Amino acid sequence: MKKLGILAGLGTALTPMAALAHDGHAVGFLGGLAHPLTGADHLLAMLAVGLWAAALGGRAVVALPLAFVGALAAGAGLGAAGLALPMVEPGILASVMVLGMLSALALRLPLPVAAAGVAGFGLLHGLAHGAEMTGAFAPYAAGFVATSLALHLAGLGLGRWSGAARVLGAGTALAGLALSFA
What we know:
Blueprint: H1 2-13, E1 26-27, H2 28-34, H3 40-56, H4 60-80, H5 88-105, H6 111-132, E2 133-134, H7 137-159, H8 164-180
C-alpha cells in the first residue's frame, strides 16, 4: 500500500507536465523524441501499454505495443494532415485511466479485442502528436515512434517484476484520475 501511495503522489506531482505536452512546437527528430516525455498523459499511457502486455504475457507482449505504435503512426499522419476529431484530449486522458486499470486488474481479454482497444488509444495519441507537429513529418514521427517503443519496453520491463504490473497499473490509473482534475 505504501508503494501505491508513492506512485499516486508521483503521478500527482507530474500533473503540471500535462499542459506541456501540447505546445505546438514539436519540430524534427529531437522534438519527436521529446514529445511523449513532456506530458504525463502520453508518458503514463505508453508505459501502461507495456505493463498490461507484461501482465498478459504470451503474444500480447509483442501485439499490444505494435498495435499502439502502428495506430499512433497512422493517427499522427491524419493529425498532421489536419484531421481533427472531437474528444481527443479526453480520450487520451481516458487511455491513462483505462490502460492503468487493465494492467492493475491484469484483465484477460481476447488478444484481438485487447489489441483493437490499445490501437484505438494509440490513434488518439497519434492525432495529438500529429496536430502538434511543425516542419517535416518523417523525422518528427521517427522520434516519437522511437520514444513510444522505448516507453512500451520500459513498461514491459517493469511489469515483469512480481506484482509490479498491478501496482504500477493502479498508480497509473490514479495518476490519470489526478490529471483529470489538473
